[in-house]
């Protein structure tokens, strides 16, 4: 990377950091900002699979939602602390990812997609019927608590910076993972799986580890969302949410670092502002964006920008 | 009274009958899915939406134009099939050179659009479609009453499945189709109009889904979301059966419907998930599916 590139990148991330830190003071509704961050985190976690390993998981809401339920249940019914509750949720999401991933990596491509979809539907029905999820009503009144009893997260500003810090940490972690030797192997699998196998890499193990990482991080996003909004509903584990995270990633640019976050911001903002105006027709619009993305805009926004600039950001 | 697993026999037979009805829908849908996948390499996520559109076409036909059930059985698949052909021409055609995942995503988007439009026009609540007069009532089998309409659904679906199998495996048209599936370039070199076959196949597969929708209209509530969860079950059926084989798709559809019906009697809480559990077990035991021949 040339010095000029490095300079441009420092500028870009510097500006983004300032925008992130200043956002609550710009007149934007803080809970909405936190929701954007949670879904950005979710999409970045999802991108680790789709973008860097080309595994299309069609059921990522299962990890997002189950972690949200577990965290909600732990801090509400079991009286766990906030951090412990989040870690509990993430652990369950990662274990679920291990179980489903171990089955799904046995097949590739569209079969992988169908298997993850079917198994996430299984998780959906379990959440519908399990005693601790509140069924159709979901979980309500989840307290935000505090960080080790030191920082109270009840206020929106404190919670916002907590979520922002979590997002930034995961973003850096994902960059590290992708640039690590492990990430290079994942990209090799994406480029040519049989060749990676013939070079002696245990492809399935790499794929499974990527799946578990992605599921765990998606779970973190779900846990944070449960704490931010104070409730969890069945829509968090539903197929619709799984579809939305795919759209976010595609729209922003799969296989780019900033793309999924941008896509999440666009999709959630569109939904938020249009659902009041057009009601049920929002899903028509989401579907239309899907069709446009797949037929004419496969690189996504950041992917197109990177192509024009001929460099990665 | 005779009991099995502590459940009265008539209850078991009743649920098995319902399971067989569901199984015939699974068979019709997974057949269409398998044929489309075989030729186009596209997993048609919109299959459930076309099933829903078929049911709505029958409903709107009856309510607005007074089209009776028997005409709807022809007209609805025809209309939806033409819609499918338009979609294939406009969108799907451009994706054949790309990763099959794009086809899945495109049809997912189309399903969202179709469901959203129907929800905008008709609302989310279910509509009921009357059973046609000539199929009302039931046969008394002694141990249970078999509603004539249910028997008709099973008979009609299985005959259509059988006819499709015959068409594909035993006729000249089917041989052409299989040749195009096997090697499109070579088939084209022999003068077969492959793009036309691809287009008609998508139309026919989609029309089968719409036909299932019309058959289902009198036994389920006609609603915009009736296809969205069904298509996931059908995906699981297809993973279990293996997508390479037409008979496999039909057989696993029927059998899984029966198993689902049986689960409703023995352990009702699991009836929604039993197909997915079976899929997981099959994946451990035979990753390519029970009838799968293709490489993973």
Structural notes for this entry:
The complex is a heterodimer of chains A (313) and B (296). Chain A is an all-alpha fold and 313 residues long. Chain A contains 13 helices and two strands; from the N terminus they run H-H-H-H-H-E-E-H-H-H-H-H-H-H-H. In chain A, strands 1-2 form a two-stranded antiparallel ribbon. In chain A, strand 1 (146-147) and strand 2 form a beta hairpin. Chain A is globular, with a radius of gyration of 19 Å. Chain B contains eleven helices and four strands, in the order ββααααββααααααα. Chain B has helices at residues 9-40, 47-65, 69-90, 100-122, 148-170, 172-182, 184-189, 194-216, 228-241, 246-266, 274-285, and strands spanning 3-4, 7-8, 138-140, 145-147. In chain B, the strands form two sheets. A two-stranded antiparallel sheet of chain B has the order 1-2. In chain B, helix 1 runs antiparallel to helix 10 (246-266), helix 2 runs parallel beside helix 4 (100-122) and helix 9 (228-241) packs across helix 10 (246-266). The longest helix of chain B is centred in the first third of the chain and has 32 residues, at 9-40. Chains A and B meet through helix 5, helix 10 and helix 12 of A and helix 4, helix 9 and helix 11 of B.
Brief write-up:
Chain A has helices at about 5-20, 30-55, 60-75, 80-105, 110-130, 155-180, 180-190, 195-200, 205-230, 240-250, 260-280, 280-295, 300-310; strands at about 145, 150.
Run of helices and strands of chain B: EEHHHHEEHHHHHHH
Number of helices of chain A: 13
Structural class of chain B: mainly alpha
Strand order of the largest sheet of chain A: 1-2
Shape annotation of chain B: globular
| SS elements, strand count of chain A | 2
> What is the overall number of helices of chain B?
11
Secondary-structure element order of chain A, as H and E?
A: HHHHHEEHHHHHHHH
Largest interface: A-B, 43 and 45 residues
Q: Which band does the percent of strand residues of chain B land in?
A: under 5%
- The rounded distance between the terminal residues' Cα atoms of chain A is 11 Å
Radius of gyration of chain B: 19 Å
Average pLDDT of chain A: 91
Low-confidence stretches of chain B: none
